[in-house]
Amino acid sequence: MDSLATALYVRTDDLLMGSPQLSDAELVTLSMMQAMLGYTSEARWLRHARVHLRHLFPYPPKQPGYNKRLRKAVGLIRHVMRELAVDTALWTDDVWVVDSTPVECGRSRETVKRSDLAGWAQYGYCASHTRYFWGLRLHLLCTMGGLPITFALTGAKADERETLLDIFATEPTLVTDRPPGQTLIGDKNYFGREFESQLADLNIELLRPARKGEAEWAGSQLFKPLRQVIESINETFKGQLDLERHRGRTPGGVMVRVLQRILALTAAVWHNEHTGQPVMRSLTAYDH
Q1: pLDDT band at 123 (very low <50, low <70, confident <90, very high)
Q2: Gyration radius (Cα) of the chain, Å
Q3: Residue 231 burial (CB < 10 Å; 0-12/13-18/19+)?
Q4: Distance CA 103, CA 148 (A)
Q5: Confidence band for 83, pLDDT divided at 50, 70 and 90
C-alpha cells in the first residue's frame, strides 16, 4: 500500500503544483487510500491517518477541510485518473466492455423525501439482483483487463444506450484518437437499429447476446465468458471497494465518493502494470 501511495503521489505531484502543507497530490493520494482500505467514514479514516500514516502525510487535514477540498477536487481526480489510464498499455486495447450497475442512495421513504439527491436519484430496477432500488446508475466503459476508460453517473432510469452515446459525444477523442475497428461488448440492453447505426458511424462494432426472436450472432458462444469480465469488474467495485456503502448524501458527496473508487481501481491497474504484476486488476497486494 505504501508503494502504491508513493507512486501515485509522485505521479500526481509531477502534474500539479503543491501547497506548503497538504498538497493537491497528497489529497488525491489520501482519497485513493481511503477507498482502497475500505474506510467509508471520513471521520474514521482521518483518525486512522493521524495515528498510522504520519510517515506519508505529516499534516493530515481535519474532517471539515478534507470534506470541502475533496468535493472541490472532482475535476482534479478525473484528470489524474485519465493520466494514469493513458500511462498503461491497456489504454490502447481494441476491445471494450460496457455495463451499468446500481448505486443505491437510500432505502426508507423518509430518506427519499428528505434527500438532497431528489431529482437526480430515481427508483430503478436491478435485473441482476431482481430488486428495485432508489438511487443512481454507474455506467462503466472498461478494457478487458479491467482498466476503467470512462464513466457516467446518472439517474436509475436513464437509458443505457443514450448514456453511452452521450459519453462518446462528450468525449469524442475516445474514438477519434484510436484506429478504426474498436469492438464493444455489451448485454441485451444495448440494442436497436438506430443505436447500432450510430455506433457504426463511430467505427465501433457492437457485440451482444441475441434478444428473444433474433438469430444468434456469430461467435455468440463467447459472449458469456466475455460478459463475465464486466460483471467481475462491478463486483470489484461493490465487494472490495464498497461502492454500495458510499454514504454520500449530496450530489457532490456521491460523485466524489464514486470517483475515489474508480481512482483506486485505476491506480491499482496502473501500479500493477508498472511493477510487473501478473494480474492487472488484483487488489490483493493492497490489503484486499
Answers
A1: very high
A2: 19
A3: middle
A4: 17
A5: very high
Q: Distances from the Cα of 145 to the Cαs of 47, 95, 216, 231, in angstroms?
A: 35, 10, 26, 13
Is residue 40 within 8 Å of residue 244, measured between CB atoms? no
Domains of the chain are 93-244 (3.30.420.10)
The three three-digit cell numbers of residue 206, written as one number: 457492437
Distance CA 195, CA 133 (A): 27
Instruction: Report the C-alpha gap between 185 and 211 in whole angstroms.
Output: 14
Distances (CA, A) of 150 to 74, 138, 167, 228, 261: 14, 11, 8, 19, 13
270 contacts 88 by C-beta, under 8 angstroms: yes
Q: Is the pTM of this model over 0.85?
A: yes
Where does the pLDDT of residue 20 fall: very low under 50, low under 70, confident under 90, or very high at 90 and above? very low
Using CA atoms, how far residue 157 sits from 130, 136, 150, in Å, is: 15, 8, 20
Give the CA-trace dihedral at 127, 166, 232, 256, to 10 degrees: -100
| Side chain identity at residue 265, one-letter code | L
pLDDT of residue 22: 58
Distances (CA, A) of 280 to 31, 94, 148, 171: 21, 17, 12, 25
